[in-house]
Amino acid sequence: MSAAVMTRRVPNLTALGALVAIPVLLAHLPSFFHRLLDGDEAVYGSIAALMNLGGALYADGGVDNKPPGIFWVYSVTFRMFGIYQMTAIHAVALLVIAATCVLLFVIGRPVAGTRAALLAALFYGVLTGAGNPRLLAANTEAFMMLPLTASFLLMLRRRWLWSGLLLTAAGAFRQSAAIDVLLVPMAVYYLEPRESRRRALALFAGGVVAGLLAGAGLLALTGSLTGFWQWTIGILGGYAGANWTADLIWSRAKDSLIPFLLDMAVLWVAAIAWAARWVRLDSVQRLIVAWLVVSAVGSLAGGHLSWHYFIQVMGPLALLSAFAIDSALRTRYVKQVAAIAAIGVAVPALAWGAYDISADPLTYDWSPPIAQHQLVADYVRAHTKSTDRVFVWGDWPALYVESDRVMASRFPGFLRGFARGSGLPPNNWDTAPEVWPELQADLERDRPALIVDTSSAGWSDFAMYPMQNYPVLQGLVDASYHQIAVVDGVAIYARTSG
Asked: What pLDDT sits at residue 182?
């Protein structure tokens, strides 16, 4: 009688991938409970709405200091699904995060095996959802990480031309992607034989140049090249410098950096422990450690320290922590390691998920009294036609999206990124001398049906900047508008007939 051969069935990769996708989807589910997840989404959305009416980005189609990629994504999505269709935007962002998870799996599998690669994908998907509502937003960093991760993967595969091209594509979403160029000399040294290193560097540089030329061509074709240089390159030094003050750094660190480090401490401990094995790591793992270091510098460089800035760190963090935890699971402490890792990742994710579903993303960190922004948006919608333009004074572009109205100006907000209420003179990039003639021209060309003054209610610390301090605004109100309502302290002005 032949002995029965016992075989153990191993789950296939598709089934394992589905098991990873479920917690990632759950971590990002709160993003579908809210129309807006932060003010940045409102900026991108309100500018995309103007662009779709024919305006040129960085000109009459909307002005911001971000590269064009995020606005192009919002614009195309709105064209496909409708103006201010934020559910579609959130779905696109989730697909981008899922695609980045796949790329991290592809990076991790040849380095440490299938289980470690799946853990890396899982950790990135959960990390990008386990934080305050701002982390969940369809923001520049989430979109940047897809081409940035692809660039790193192609770097490992010595596809230097395409790696450089994709690094430039990542920079089209956020300037801090450029810091990954620091990885290139190390990668070339580790991965290329001596005789081909110059060629590799030349190919990478060629990819970067090709990407820059392609981006410049797209900006030129859309009439946005000059404005791009003015608003995203010319102001960088001043914008970053304004954020590097002790009070601002500490305030923002308490809200984002410290919780990020503490909530996912289990992953940080694992990643740092793995990086400490430097002398025993192979060249690819050393490059991933270097990727983590330069990503940390890139995420901190602007000094703004919002939680979503740290998405740039989460890719290499997910890989290194996955390698460490997978290795620990091969020891006799497998049950303890599995429990610590599961609890350390799941508990913060579940806690933040419950909070993010119930919290108002636009006012979650406010002290009372809380801005009743939806009341103001409802009033604006009820007292205007869908074709009317509206102007909001302050830093509340969310009112455009929530009221489904297009802004009458190219500027979706003012004193953005500025320490409002600090007593510093309000000489911000979006209140510079060249802003006011452009604002005046916009308001004369597209006369707003309503002017909404959030400074009268002190929303977003704007009480120190009343319209009367700005002649362009006060002159327009005095000449052509009268107050018709006050909603939650927000003064609303309508055009004077005749």
From this structure: 97
Question: Structure tokens of 116?
Answer: 């470690």
Q: Which amino acid is at 187?
A: A
Burial of 14 by CB count in 10 Å (0-12 exposed, 13-18 middle, 19+ buried)? exposed
- Please write the tens of the pLDDT for every residue from 239-292: 555 555 666 666 666 777 788 888 889 999 999 999 999 999 999 999 999 999
Contact 320, 274 (CB under 8 A): yes
Measured at the CA of 235, the angle between CA 231 and CA 241, to 5 degrees, comes to 150
Please give the Cα distance from 169 to 299 (Å, whole number): 18
Q: How confident is the model over 5-36, as pLDDT tens digits?
A: 444 455 688 888 888 999 999 999 999 999 99
In a domain, 334, yes or no: yes
In this structure, the answer to whether residues 349 and 467 fall within a common structural domain is no
DSSP secondary structure of 2-26: PPPPP-PPPPPHHHHHHHHHHHHHH
Q: Which of 240, 257, 363, 249 is nearest to 307 (CA)?
A: 257
User: Contact, 149 vs 157, CB < 8 A?
Assistant: no
Same domain, 403 and 353: no
Q: What is the pLDDT of residue 365?
A: 81
Token pair for residue 428? 């911000």
Task: Give the residue among 255, 291, 310 at the shortest CA–CA distance from 139.
Answer: 310
Rounded to two decimals, the pTM is 0.93
b/e per residue 189-207 (b: at least 16 CB within 10 A): eebbeeeeeeebbebbeeb
Shared-domain flag, residues 244 and 212:
yes
